[in-house]
């Protein structure tokens, strides 16, 4: 595998990475397919996390505003909703980190 990249943590400052398939090291192309699959999965999880966090922030802000300026929601319900939003956000970050680690383990043997 020829790399023209600099890997730093979970971020990839890469212009491109060459993955030779069907060569002597990877005769049937499975390694190249696995790397491509891990890359696409990491990109999907990153996009999912970004969209999810935007929606969570809007929902949490709306619940906080409703709970603060009206008597519709009790304070305990607002706190519980914020904790649930935080748990979902942490879960999304964990999924993204796992996907990026899987990609990194495929790229660096």
Write up this protein.
The chain is α+β, with helices and mostly antiparallel strands. It has one domain. The chain has helices at 30-69, 75-107; strands at 2-8, 11-18. A two-stranded antiparallel sheet has the order 1-2. A hairpin with a 2-residue loop joins strand 1 and strand 2. Helix 1 (30-69) packs antiparallel against helix 2 (75-107). The chain starts with a strand and ends with a helix. The model is unreliable at 1-9 (pLDDT under 50).
Q: How would you describe this structure in keywords?
A:
alpha+beta, disordered N terminus, two-stranded antiparallel sheet, 2 helices, 109 residues
Task: Please sum up the structure shown.
This protein has 109 residues and is an alpha+beta fold. It has helices at 30-69, 75-107, and strands spanning 2-8, 11-18. It has one domain (2-107).
Annotation field: number of helices: 2
Task: Look at the structure and give the mean pLDDT.
Answer: 84
> How much helix is in the residues?
55-70%
Radius of gyration (Å): 20 Å
Unreliable sequence segments: 1-9
The main β sheet shows up as: 2 strands, antiparallel
Q: Largest sheet, order of strands side by side?
A: 1-2
Order of helices and strands: EEHH
The gross shape turns out to be rod-shaped
Q: Distance between termini?
A: 11 Å
Broad structural category:
alpha+beta
What percent of residues are in strands?
5-15%
Provide the number of structural domains: 1
The overall strand count is: 2
């Amino acid at each position: 595998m020829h790399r023209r990249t600099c890997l730093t943590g979970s971020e990839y400052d890469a212009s491109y990475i060459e993955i030779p398939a069907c060569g002597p090291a990877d005769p049937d192309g499975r390694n190249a397919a696995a790397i491509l699959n891990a890359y696409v999965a990491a990109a999907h999880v990153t996009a999912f996390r970004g969209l999810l966090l935007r929606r969570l922030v809007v929902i949490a802000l709306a619940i906080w505003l409703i709970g603060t300026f009206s008597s519709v929601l009790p304070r305990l319900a607002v706190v519980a909703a914020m904790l649930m939003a935080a748990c979902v956000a942490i879960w999304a970050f964990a999924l993204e980190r796992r996907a990026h680690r899987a990609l990194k383990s495929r790229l660096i043997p």
